[in-house]
Write a structure and sequence with these properties.
alpha/beta; FAD/NAD(P)-binding domain; Enolase-like, domain 1; 7-stranded mixed sheet; 5-stranded parallel sheet; about 35% helix; about 25% strand; globular; binds flavin-adenine dinucleotide
Length: about 475
């Protein structure tokens, strides 16, 4: 069979690229080595983690807040098996949705590992048990590599998938751990750490950097640490470098060195390693077309996401930039449109980043640290959730909105939110910055009362002329 475009990998980058290519009239094939479509995001990433985050948050709210809301129930209990079962159902429905979209858009789906014979010929080796090993050849004009990423594993980490685990196993545990050590206080570590902390696990986070979620504005990390200590009793060990991990009977033992050079030992029943992810290109046969990867497996691309081989593109986690589903999707759309002769572009500064803890954290644009480092003159305005009527009504008073704007022009340069529904609220920051709005532009818009969004208006008022109304 001959195609205009063949996509290897069916994550959010790959399947969205396939749909856009088909919409634009290109004859499209997609290859996926696993039995289900959707990639990391749908199977072992965004979707299952959010399902468990929501279930555990409901439990935590019932346990901590119902009484004050005037709801008397018997002591709530965790039915962990059911929680995991519900998560599986959510994943299945979402993956089935991608199957449907492939059929609807007349995209041919090939199950198996895709590898390059040359730049116009791809071999698919089936991994499904029924047809395992069967080879199919596909001829194609262009190729999009969308093979995603896998967790980074320290060489000394005895990754047995039982007690020493990554996010993949943390989404499928058989029991709620009594104690869990989380190595890495980034997005995945904080999300999954908070799931188990809400369910009653004693969670200790060990982080090498001086702050958790270190790539975000430092105000966010400080506030998330404060709230996680207060409401979830999570413990944080910052500026600790983990050097050893081993099993001792039923216990995992982690040794780290603190900032003063003192050795610190941690013991628990589970250890979750969440120190980042790296590009995945194994089995692709890149050597057959002369594409090299860097040490971390990343494929180099130009501004049009084309690799060093003409007609072969790469998108999503397998290329540079934030490892986020919506970044991969934008890149998928961009490449399909370029192939169809359009002139799309992506503003990478405006790809928002979100941490789905509670409160949620969401960010777009420059952080205060980046503005300081670049020497750009800026103003800052903040507004706490505590001062919002809506937040008091829902008992979600932790958090704040911080807006950074150019000192002279008042153009919004960054928006950073920690608080209830921050993940949804950040869209307003993206829109404002896409249209190069000033803080005053947003401040002068009417925001419905009472809403969490009023904190954005007030933070913009504070950034404009330090004239927040309700503070
Ligand atoms: P992937 O989703 O990794 O898909 C790549 C696909 O390619 C896989 O299905 C793989 O099997 C397939 N493949 C690889 N090699 C071959 C081959 N040779 N032949 C055939 N198929 C192949 N991002 C967010 O934006 N929001 C979140 O809330 C979020 N939460 C996350 C939570 C967790 C626990 C994790 C691990 C990640 C999370 N992410 C989140 C990140 C997000 O999942 C990734 O950024 C996204 O999946 C990347 O999409 P992709 O299309 O590049 O690759």
């Amino acid at each position: 069979m001959k195609y205009d475009v063949t996509i290897i990998g069916s994550g959010p980058g790959g399947y969205v690229a396939a749909i856009r290519a088909a919409q634009l009239g290109l004859k499209t094939a997609i290859i996926e080595k696993y039995a289900t479509l959707g990639g990391t995001c749908l199977n072992v990433g965004c979707i299952p983690s959010k399902a468990l985050l929501d279930s555990s948050e409901h439990f935590h709210t019932a346990q901590k807040n119902f009484k004050e809301h005037g709801i008397d129930i018997n002591e709530p209990k965790v039915n962990f098996e059911q929680m995991i079962e519900r998560k599986r159902g959510v994943v299945k429905k979402t993956c089935d949705g991608v199957d449907y979209l492939m059929k609807k858009n007349k995209i041919d789906v090939y199950q198996g590992v895709g590898s390059f014979i040359d730049k116009n010929n791809i071999k698919v080796t089936a991994t499904d048990s029924k047809e395992k090993g069967k080879e199919t050849k596909i001829e194609t004009d262009k190729v999009i590599i969308a093979t995603g990423s896998k967790p980074t594993i320290f060489p000394f980490f005895p990754y047995d998938k039982k007690r020493f685990i990554t996010s993949t196993e943390a989404l499928e545990l058989k029991e709620v751990p009594k104690k869990m050590i989380v190595i890495g206080g980034g997005v995945i570590g904080m999300e999954l750490g908070s799931v188990y902390a809400r369910l009653g696990t004693e969670v200790s986070v060990i982080e090498f950097m001086p702050s958790i979620i270190p790539t975000m504005d430092s105000t966010m990390g400080k506030e998330l640490e404060r709230v996680s200590k207060k409401s979830l009793k999570m413990k944080f060990f910052l500026q600790h470098k983990v050097e050893e991990a081993k099993q001792d009977g039923d216990e995992v033992v982690i040794k780290a060195v603190d900032k003063k050079g003192k050795e610190v030992e941690f013991r628990a029943d589970y250890c979750l390693l969440s120190v980042g992810r790296q590009a995945y290109t194994e089995g692709l046969g890149l050597e057959n077309i002369g594409i090299k990867t860097d040490k971390r497996g990343t494929i180099a691309v130009n501004d049009h996401l084309e690799t060093e081989v003409k007609g072969v593109y790469a998108i999503g986690d397998v290329v540079r930039g934030a490892m986020l589903a919506h970044k991969a999707e934008e890149e998928g759309v961009m490449v399909a449109e370029l192939m169809a002769g359009q002139k799309p572009h992506i503003n990478y500064l405006l790809i928002p980043g979100v941490v789905y803890t509670w409160p949620e954290v969401a960010s777009v644009g420059y952080t205060e640290e980046q503005l300081k480092e670049s020497g750009r003159k800026y103003k800052s305005g903040s507004f706490p959730f505590m001062a919002l009527g809506r937040a008091r009504a829902s008992m979600d008073t932790d958090g704040l909105v911080k807006v950074l704007a150019d000192e002279k022009t008042d153009e919004i340069l960054g928006m950073h939110i920690i608080g209830a529904r921050a993940a949804d609220m950040i869209a307003t920051g993206v829109t404002a910055m896409e249209y190069r709005a000033s803080a005053e532009d947003v401040a002068r818009q009417s925001h419905a009362h009472p809403t969490y969004m009023e904190a954005v208006k007030e933070a913009c008022l504070a950034a404009t002329e330090n004239r927040a109304v309700h503070m």
